[in-house]
Amino acid sequence: MKTTLLVPTLNEIAGMRAVMPRVQPGWADQILVVDGGSRDGTAEYAREAGYQTLVQQRKGMRYAYIEAMPYVTGDSVITFSPDGNCIPELIPLLQEEMRNGHDMVIVSRYASGAGSEDDDLLTAFGNRALTWLINGLYGARYTDALGIYRAWRTELFAALDLDKDKSYRREERLFRTTVGVEPLLSIRAAKRKLSCGEIPGAEPKRIGGHRKLQMFRWGAAYLYEIVRERFTWK
Ligand SMILES: Nc1nc2c(ncn2[C@@H]2O[C@H](COP(=O)(O)OP(=O)(O)OP(=O)(O)O)[C@@H](O)[C@H]2O)c(=O)[nH]1
Ligand SMILES: [Mg+2]
Predict the structure, then answer these.
(1) Domain boundaries in the chain?
(2) Cβ–ligand 1 contact at 9 (below 6 Å)
(3) Which residues are CB-contacts of 20 (< 8 A; sequence separation ≥ 6)?
């Protein structure tokens, strides 16, 4: 099974310099950096370091994934934030768990043995509350349904309609934002009763740069999405 490491970046030069050298060449068959228009030299650094690098045409986190998908050559994708929040040494463990036959494996920040040093009170509460709601509404058993750091079979992205604007349009219009794909990926995987595993993985603090997460808009949009999805997309 071939693996693509998908690395979204937006002004993450400090994190990239610190984290990417820790990713061993043998761990992924393809490393694809998708840059959201950094002004700090992140894309230039990625190219010079030899990583295949795309620059997004449309703004927003989910477009980073949508525009990258045509270039993905792996049978599975690992989405990886190079801002210090994802421990690269977990990549082989994530792959091992995927090889057990799962459709998706999440590196859970809230599984026992893990923990987040990057959360503040609001994100700690919000991530847990939204995960709890997803579990309740969709009969899932996630301990972390929102995290970026996860592996999934490449074909899921289109199969779950995550590549379609209409999957996100209502919440994005209502809250004037562009969301990420993770909550919907978790929900639709549960709806389809796909095999989802988790491994515990701590979330260290971000290195340099600053958070792009729009906490209140995304929190509200995700809350709406989680409930809305109960009545749409069968
Ligand atoms: N390509 C691309 N990358 C993005 C975009 N927004 C954020 N990123 C990157 O995606 C990764 C995760 O974003 P973060 O801002 O760390 O979001 P987060 O991890 O939810 O928030 P914190 O960890 O609390 O800072 C980081 O490497 C960001 O630079 C975007 O619009 N396009
Ligand atoms: Mg982060």
Answers:
(1) 3-228
(2) yes
(3) 7, 46, 49, 51, 82
3-state class percentages of the chain: helix first, strand second, coil last, to nearest 5:
40, 15, 40
Residue 234 pLDDT > 90, yes or no?
no
- What one-letter code names the amino acid at 154? T
Average the pLDDT over each of 36-50, 69-83, 123-137, 207-221 and give the range with the smallest value: 207-221
Q: CA-to-CA distance for 142 and 138, rounded, in angstroms? A: 10
Count CB-CB contacts under 10 A for residue 210. 10
Contact 112, 180 (CB under 8 A): no
Q: Which of the listed residues 58, 83, 148 should we mutate to test ligand 1's pocket, taking the one with most ligand atoms within 8 A of CB?
A: 83
Q: How much of the chain exceeds pLDDT 90, in percent?
A: 97
List of residues 6+ apart from 24 with CB closer than 8 A: none
Does the model's pTM come out above 0.85? yes
**Residue-wise pLDDT tens digits, 55-72:** 999 999 999 999 999 999
Would you state the structure tokens that stand for residue 188, as one six-digit string?
């639709």
Any atom of ligand 1 within 6 Å of the Cβ of 151: no
Residue 185, pLDDT above cutoff 90: yes
205 in contact with ligand 1, CB cutoff 6 A: no
Strand ordering across the sheet containing 104-108? 52-55, 30-35, 3-9, 76-79, 150-153, 104-108, 196-200
CATH annotation of 3-228: 3.90.550.10
